[in-house]
Write a structure and sequence with these properties.
The protein is of the alpha+beta class and about 350 residues long. Helices cover about 40% and strands about 25% of the residues.
């Protein structure tokens, strides 16, 4: 996209048009691609509406809503850190970063409607985008911008719904996935899904997951309040029945822990109807503990799969990031996240 003029994005239609134009640029998959000068103004937004007991949810924010919004904000901060530093560790954020991360929520009079703007966060991240492009190509950089835009707002849940649907069809090529998406989404949504699929990196995947986790944590906090009847995140509506189901699941003592350790690869086992599910048998090189990490063909990157296969052959250790979930003290999930590849 050869232009010296700054591109202003102030609405969803502006954003879709920008992404569509970017996808048509011939050299976008080149490592030499220079990302255009863009600025988000007044968009995207975080719109949170809570309907409940009139005396409590009217021109006010209850404790559950405040704590939930704090959880959401923390996950957005972590997504920003992934964008900037390829790690969700908040200690990497500088004072300049923290200024860009200031989200101001406005409460609409007469309701519990909180509205925040995420434009400063995205603008703060894309200032460093061409430095990031040195480590990835243009389509991957675009995927990062799309991921952060949806993560830091409530505008893109329908995009993400379609994106995650494509990820379940592990034996289908990316081209087929994008073509299939046209059957159930409008062209604007297809453009976003296209960018997310073709620009997918381990960082963009984690950014999306951080956004999903933040919104889930917000809704979980609100679900604990029996007086809440409905929650709206943008155009996504969650009714009381769904909140009740979520609240029941919360009663399990569940602990999530992101871990990193060095492992020897002991085996790779494909399963599923189309051999799309991968179980990675590993041995912790420090403790000798054996573990099975789960992933899928759609979520593991080609260079990560190559690194695992190589380690299995050479018996060299490999550093792996993974998510461990314990329920009532028992490990129920060991989910492969990514490989810490050496530069």
């Amino acid at each position: 996209m050869e232009t010296s003029e700054k591109i202003i994005i102030s609405s969803e239609s502006d954003f879709i048009s920008f992404v569509s134009n970017m996808l048509s640029v011939e050299n976008i998959e080149s490592d030499e691609f220079v990302f255009p000068d863009i600025e988000f103004i007044g968009w995207p937004t975080l719109n949170i509406v809570v309907q409940g007991e009139p005396q409590r949810y009217k021109s006010s924010l209850t404790a559950s809503m405040l704590f939930g919004m704090a959880d959401l904000t923390e996950e957005i901060y972590r997504a920003f850190a992934v964008f900037r530093y390829s790690t969700s560790n908040l200690t990497n954020l500088t004072e300049s970063d923290k200024k860009a991360l200031d989200i101001v929520y406005y409460v609409t009079e007469g309701s519990s409607r909180a509205r925040g703007q995420a434009d400063r966060i995205i603008n703060g991240a894309i200032r460093f985008l061409n430095n990031a492009v040195k480590k990835m190509n243009g389509i991957q950089a675009l995927g990062m911008v799309v991921a952060l835009t949806t993560c830091a707002s409530t505008v893109g849940w329908h995009w993400l719904s379609e994106y995650y649907e494509t990820q379940r069809h592990d034996n289908t090529t990316k081209v087929d996935l994008v073509n299939a998406a046209t059957q159930s989404v409008v062209n604007g949504q297809k453009v976003i899904v296209d960018a997310l699929i073709h620009g997918q990196t381990k960082e963009s995947k984690e950014i999306l997951l951080r956004g999903e986790e933040g919104k889930a944590r917000l809704v979980k906090k609100l679900s604990a309040d029996d007086s809440v009847q409905q929650v709206e995140l943008g155009s996504h509506i969650i009714n009381r029945a769904e909140l009740n189901a979520m609240n029941i699941r919360q009663r399990i003592d569940r602990v999530r822990d992101d871990k990193t350790a060095a492992f020897f690869i002991n085996g790779l086992n494909w399963s599923g109807a189309a051999n799309q599910d991968l179980s990675v048998s590993v041995i912790n090189s420090s403790t000798g503990e054996t573990l099975t990490l789960k992933t899928t063909e759609a979520t593991i990157l080609p260079n990560e799969l190559l690194a695992l296969s190589s380690s299995l052959t050479t018996r060299d250790e490999v550093k792996i990031r993974y998510l461990e979930v314990k329920e009532n003290g028992k490990i129920t999930v060991s989910q492969f996240t990514s490989i810490e590849l050496s530069n």
